[in-house]
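ASSEMBLY PREDICTION REQUEST
Request ID: AP-0331
Submitted by: J.K., bench scientist
Number of chains: two
Total residues: 592
Priority: normal
Notes: Please return the full assembly, not individual chains.
Input sequences:
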Amino acid sequence: MAILEAKDIHKSYGKQTVLNGIDLTIKQGEIFGFLGPNGAGKTTFIKIMLGLAMPQKGELQLMGEDIFVNRKHAIKQVGAVVEAPIFFDYLTAYENLYHIVSLSGPISRQKILDVLELVGLSTAIDKKVGTFSYGMKQRLGIAQALLPDTKFLILDEPTNGLDPHGISGVRSLIRKLRDELGITIFLSSHLLIEVEQVCDRVCIIHHGNKVFEGVVAEVTQSEQTIVEVKASKELDCKSWNLLKSEEHHGLQQLTFELDKQEIPQLVQSLIDQNAEIFQVRSEEPNLEELFINLTKDKHLDVRIDSFGN
Amino acid sequence: MYALIRLEIKKIISQKKSWMGIIAIIIINGLFAIGFLINEQKRGDQASKVAQDFLVSDFMNASFFTQTILGPSLFLIFPMLISILASYIYAGEFEVGSIRMVLMRPTSRIQVLLAKFVTVSLYSIFMLAVLGGLSYIVGSIFLKQTDTLIIPGVIYEIPKKYGMIFEFTGADKFIRIFLSYFFAIPMLLSVCAMAIMFASITRHFTSAAILTTTLYFSSYIVGIIPFLSSIHPYLPTTKWYAWKYLLVPDIPWDMVINHLIWSGGYTAVFLGIAGAIFNMRDV
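STATUS: Completed
Returned structure:
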């Protein structure tokens, strides 16, 4: 069953197109990664998913309901943390959760305490949120999103501002929520390692366009690999998929794309040509490589990074 | 809706700044008490014993104090307090982003807007009750409690055709005080709705508060300048003062109803605009 089904979502602000025909399907029980550089349109898409923003065009079914027609019903079992977790600083953690979650229906004190325990805030129940660190607010945000009975959790950059322990804790929590509670999770992030570690499928958007959608394992466990060889002389490599050949400090640097199983044969063929092999380096395919390739701009775009990569 | 109102009330009660309204009421009570006492002293020095007894005993009493304080409070202090509070709890939440957290729950935007309106309205009613109660206590402490309530119509800008001085005694005195306070509520709701409308348009606390107070006070000031009378019928505040007609001995109910309808109409229009804008825009 599809938890979310978005078709041809278009959104623009004035002349600036933020989303350009996004199609997306999220299946029950999966952890779905939503990747994109800063300014790619990730948060706008999340806001549309939650009915907080209206697209100019497109359809979106959330939990089987049209979000633009029956939002109240569609959102009932959906929890989200969008952008920064913002609470009422003058209320305690418990009061914040109680009053906010009560908007979805009755909630017991025990349930709130259980969720606070789950996110590691059991000792801060009666503390005013104004005294919380950013990391604690992030965890409270996740607690809020899990209540009262969330089946689909939307997290927008959930590890922002967390220390390494906090990041690791949130990642374990995400896996636990899916594995033990069966919650479907939509994880928006620009941290590739995060998505690689916890997500089943991933979608990459860039300048409002979907540029990739696929299974994370297929990307990271692909048999295809990039092999770099440094040899002493120019070689005949016609029978191999040679991507690049250049001279570097008197050595020939060759870059191939081939199947992992073919590496020994490649090396043997180079040795057969009486070449001295100084280095063979195989680069495992990863999401980062894919992401950089897909979101690389020819023109410098400050939204991507300050180095123009 | 109930949960939303409860959340809004909790937010108001938990913030120390919400209680500044009480401080404003204490300040105006203090100034009024000092003013009354100085005035009484001067009269004591100048008037004959008979005149002094009449003025102190029959005119300057707790009921008069309670009724007199309502005018400046309603014309100036309450509109300012309500504008700031309504702008803060609505536009302020846009600025901080906390309104998004509420809207991620199965609530409609109209419900969120109405909950804020109802809460500020309840706050206004509470403050009105505090004003009435506190001023009666202060008046009772500093002035004598006598049975007569004398109201000079001019201090509330009551048209001369209804008379100049109104006098009430016994239970009627308390009924008139209560009615004038009670019928002030629609005016406060109109100010609240106006602030919510500007908050919805600007989504900026300071801008919303400035626009509301500017529109209200400009309209009020222009409304009391006689040579600008040609514009008076078109000013939003001209017909928000149903409460003052409850102080006329023979209550002109047609005027009361007329003002209530206009005030209610403005409230509905302001809220309608606020709701339409809130519904259209992304959060």
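REVIEWER COMMENTS: The domain at 2-219 of chain A is CATH 3.40.50.300 (Rossmann fold).
SIGN-OFF: pending second reviewer
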